[in-house]
């Protein structure tokens, strides 16, 4: 192995991580994760068997098939949120409704775990909004921002220097500098602007 191999693999890992971050940011990723995870306990618990020594405890109900259907639908809705962003609102509302139905059908919504996860996932999907590209002003810069986009304020319009009341205009005292930079007072005791 050469000394360049770890650097190259680190570059590949970084590139893949950045690609995944871009992919994740362009869709309701966490909504899909919570919805997928919500479907697992709802579908699993009615078919699970817990063994305590020689005793087996089955949590099966008469609606075991209904629990499996709800779990599979939640899993499918989670994938839909990832790969079909246009249907995110439908998928979110359907996940919320299936989570509510699972309270009655599937062992209190997969012992509340699946119910809460599917509700959170559905709510995140409904509230997710795609990022809009930033509008650019003239010259490739946003209005009011410096060349590096670091919040540099705009300069005053031409001919505005020395005019009181305009933003970014330097202050000039009304008495021509005789008052040492303190504005003159008017008859009411307030300061005159110009």
TrEMBL record:
The chain crosses the membrane at residues 29-47, 53-77, 89-105, 111-131. Keywords: Membrane, Transmembrane, Transmembrane helix. The keyword Transmembrane helix applies. The keyword Transmembrane applies. Residues 137-149 have a biased composition (Gly residues). This is DUF6114 domain-containing protein. Residues 137-194 are annotated as: Disordered.
């Amino acid at each position: 192995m050469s000394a360049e191999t770890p650097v190259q693999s680190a570059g590949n890992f970084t590139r893949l991580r950045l690609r995944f971050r871009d992919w994740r940011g362009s869709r309701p990723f966490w909504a899909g994760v919570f919805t997928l995870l919500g479907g697992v306990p709802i579908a699993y618990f009615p078919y699970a068997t817990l063994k305590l020594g020689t005793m087996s405890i089955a949590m099966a109900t008469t609606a075991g098939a209904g629990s499996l259907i709800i779990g599979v639908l939640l899993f499918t809705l989670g994938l839909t949120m990832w790969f079909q962003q246009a249907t995110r609102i439908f998928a979110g509302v359907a996940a919320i409704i299936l989570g509510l139905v699972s309270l009655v059908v599937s062992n209190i919504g997969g012992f509340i775990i699946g119910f809460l996860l599917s509700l959170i996932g559905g709510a995140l999907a409904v509230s997710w909004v795609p990022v809009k590209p930033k509008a650019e002003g003239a010259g490739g810069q946003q209005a009011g921002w410096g060349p590096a986009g670091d919040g540099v304020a705009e300069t005053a319009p031409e001919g505005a220097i020395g005019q009181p009341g305009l933003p970014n205009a330097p202050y000039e005292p009304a008495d021509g500098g005789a008052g040492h930079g303190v504005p003159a007072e008017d008859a009411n005791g307030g300061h005159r602007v110009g």
